[in-house]
Structures are given as structure tokens and as C-alpha cells.
Design brief:
Layout: E1 2-6, H1 14-26, E2 31-34, H2 40-52, H3 56-77, H4 81-100, H5 108-132, E3 137-140, H6 156-169, E4 175-179, E5 182-184, E6 190-192, H7 198-208, E7 213-218, E8 239-241, H8 242-250, H9 261-266, E9 271-275, E10 284-287, E11 295-310, H10 320-330, E12 335-341, E13 344-349, H11 355-362, E14 367-381, H12 390-397, E15 403-408, E16 414-420, H13 424-435
Parallel strand pairs: 1-2, 1-7, 2-4, 3-4, 7-9, 8-10
Antiparallel strand pairs: 5-6, 9-10, 11-13, 11-14, 12-13, 14-16, 15-16
The structure holds adenosine-5'-diphosphate, aspartic acid (ASP) and magnesium ion.
Adenosine-5'-diphosphate (ADP) binds near residues 8, 223, 254 and 255.
Amino acid sequence: MKVLKFGGTSVGSAQRIKDVARLVCKGECNIIVLSAMAGTTNTLVEVGDYLYKRNSEGARETIGALERKYWDVIDELYSSQEYKAAAREAVKECFDRVRSCMKDLFTLYEEKIVLAQGELMSTAMMHLYLQEQGVNSVMLPALDYMRTDKNNEPDMRYIESHLKAMLQENSQADIYITQGYICRNAYDEIDNLQRGGSDYSASLVGAAVEAEEIQIWTDIDGMHNNDPRYVEGTLPVHQLHFEEAAELAYFGAKILHPTCVQPAKQHNIPVRLLSTMEPDAEGTLISNNTTRRTIKAVAAKDNITAIKIKSGRMLLAYGFLRKVFEIFESYRTAIDMVTTSEVGVSVTIDNTRHLPEILDDLRKFGTVTVDEDMVIICVVGDLEWQNVGFESQVMAALKDIPVRMVSYGGSNYNISLLVRSEDKVRTLKALSQELF
Ligand code: ADP
Ligand code: ASP
Ligand code: MG
């Protein structure tokens, strides 16, 4: 059994839904994980914003406009009146649920109910479309098996037992449909796995059913060797190691949500990135294998702040780094990059919520300086230290670019560089030119 996840653009119109249906019917009995139709979750976020601000008129108008789009899709998607009516009813139920959240007190609880409706609608529509085509499609409601625990981590045991039971009860199915992104939390409330989290859903489902493969179908033919939103002429990378994919996803390659790699890696399930626009393209296979001695790809992570702590007290002292790191830990702030010298240490963070307090505490240990508006550029590949030449190639690309930090040797898979935001695009381009 495979798990196939289709993102928002892949189910973004009636035609796309039909294309996906054709694609998934070709295979054996697989589990299909769907995102909301493109733009829907953003619109639901907007509705939530209006409701937080008690602007019910803004909310009502936004909901109305979204609802009209769904009526159009339904009209185009189904051939029979019977299925059009069934789809309208399912979608109307979701919009009614959104409207029922338009009350005086709008909290995180209601917001999460609103945000969940996108995936509930796309899956209901696909399920009905497949049934209209004569396919025995079975819905696996994510809210009945996908669950997080008190630490907001997936409750793997719960997910596995519930999902397996549901599959067993419906063993006659041709195909299973389920929602990405949405879940329940430890208090049984509707929750989600964070924006872009349908990739994570697919990986968790894959791990729970010990799938033979997890496929992430999107609007591009695999992980490209640089960010196609900023660099022209990027090319797909056909093979990546789990670690390489995790680095790229974490450092900004939007095609894959950073949380997606771990469950697949842990259960050694290959992940394939494929394009719904070009279903026959090779895509990217992520597994425990990799092509050796090559640099694979470059990615960029925005909104980074660098902090330098300089202190004579660090000279020949032990325990200094521990004290510095403890401060970040006490504010639950993750550090991405670290570079050290004998008299100072620089670190980067992306969550600046507690920056003033962190700086205040750090000043007890040395002179502190901050560089905001920075970007981490991550070069990923088989960068085992004994392979010669890759570091110098990366550095050669940067000859005209001011580089604030360089980190290499932390793993066998990456070199990270910190540059100013304004230099991001030219750094990405220079690296593509030098490396690929
Ligand atoms: P989906 O809605 O299917 O989850 P996403 O928008 O989340 O799709 O991810 C696909 C997009 O990721 C692509 O359209 C592309 O612009 C962007 N992207 C960023 N970096 C890369 C990369 N290195 N390789 C491929 N796509 C990338
Ligand atoms: N629909 C959700 C979002 O837009 C989840 C996803 O698409 O992965 O964030
Ligand atoms: Mg995505």
C-alpha cells in the first residue's frame, strides 16, 4: 500500500480534481491524503482575522466569496444532479460550521475549527467524484485517527491503532481518501499540524500503516537544485538521502514540509516527490541511498537574526558555551547556526519573540551585537569532510558577497552560510552558476 498526498494546487480546480482522480485510479488500493483547494486555507485564515477583530461583515463577505467559488467548482465537477446536490450539501455543512463560529467570543478553539474546513471540503468533493465514477472510495476521517499528545507531538500509538482498525473495517475499498493537515489534540479538540502540514499527515499515515512508499504530488517535478522562485533554469534532483532532504526542507525548500522527513526516515519508507502537471516525470526519490560525491541543492531560510557574544572570559574557559546555550533554552528558542572563535560565539535564531530578554541575559556574559534581517543559505550534498574541493567551490561563488557566518562539519550533508537578506537572490544565483 502507498500513501499519495496531493497539495492545494493539485486539487485547485474542477479539472485538477478530475486529473488527480484519473491518476489515483490507475494504482492499487492506496491511501490518498488531500490538502484544501489552493487559496482556501489562506482565505480561512483571513476569515479568522476578521472574527478576532469582531468584523463580522468582513468575515461574512469573505466566506460568501469563497462559497461561490465552491459552487462553481461543484457545477463543473459532477455530471449528475444527484452528485451535485450531495456535494453542495457536504460543502454547505462546512460553510455553516464556519458561520457558526461567528459569535462574540472568537478564540483559538473556534479558529482551528474554521481552518479545518478546507481539507474537509476537498476530501468530500473528491470522495463523491470518485463514487460518481463508479469507484468504491472510502473516507477515513482524519479527525477520527490523527491525534497529537500533550506536547503537541503526534500520538503514534493512537494513530496507528485507529487507522489500522478503520482500514480493516473497510477492506473492500478500491481507494481510501483522508484529510491532510487536520487532527485532534490531547483534549479532543479540532487542531492542525501547522501550515503546510499535509506533508506531515502523509508521512504519519505512511508510518502508521507501514506503507511501501509515500508520494508527495505537487506542482513541480521534484526537489530542484535551487529555489525556482528566485533562480531560473533550476533542475530536479533525482535522488536524495533522508538527511539531505531534511536539511533542504528545514532550510527553506518549500516543496517539502520540514516535519515530513522524520516519520518516513524512522520507518525507512521512501518518499517520492512527483508533479501532477507532469505525472510521468521522474521526480525525486528520498531514501537511505544517495548519489555520492555531489552537491545536490541549495535552499534559503529567511528572517534570521544573528547574535554575537564576545568575551575575554571565554578564553581558555570551559562552561561558557553551556551558559550561553542555557539562556536560549530557558526562552525555548531554537538555535540554527553556531560559529565559535576563542573569544566569541555567534548563533542564529529565527524566533525573535524573546529576543529582548535573551539579549538582556546574554549581556551578563559579554558584549552582545545583533544582525537582523539575515538569511541562511544551505548547500546540501555528500559533503563528507574527506571529499575535497566542495568547500572551495562554495567559497568561490561567494567572492563578491559579504558573508556573516559559515558553518561546516556539523553533519556530512551541508555547508550553511549567513548573508544579508538583500544578498539572498544573488547568492543563490552565484551558487547555481558555480555548482551546477
Ligand atoms: P503544495 O501546495 O503541493 O504543498 P507547495 O507550494 O507547498 O505545494 O510546494 C511546491 C512549491 O515549492 C513549488 O511550486 C516551488 O515554487 C517551491 N519550491 C521552493 N524551493 C523548491 C525546490 N528546491 N524545489 C522544488 N520546489 C521548490
Ligand atoms: N491546507 C493547509 C495549508 O494551506 C495544509 C497544506 O496544504 O499542507 O497550510
Ligand atoms: Mg506544501
